[in-house]
Amino acid sequence: MVNTVAQTESNGQVPAREERPARAEVDDESDAVATDPSHPWRHYQIEDGLPPEVEEAIVQDPPPVDEVWTAHTDGAWGTARAGAATIITSPTVRAAAFTARLEFQTTNNMAKYEAILLAL
Questions:
Q1: Reading across the β-sheet that carries 82-89, which strands appear in turn?
Q2: What is the pTM of this model?
């Protein structure tokens, strides 16, 4: 098995790609897959690490709390009908409410998922 967990430095930062230690040793079966040109899985080897653009996004600081939008969602199901509702609040604390009646057979959990989609 390949060790895919990124190691962190003492300050909690992920080291740059070129500073990372070499990939952990793999077991005999993985070595056989990597070295056997006729093995059907040879093209599906997992690389250690993330693409640079993903690493940059992870290391960046999150946006300040006063710039975050929030969405409160709920879905409800009954024997007669189902619905979904969401309230979206902007960073300036302006709220907008949206509701939808679901015109298809659904479960309570599906109604809740529809409410989340309504928020998006």
A1: 70-77, 82-89, 95-102
A2: 0.44
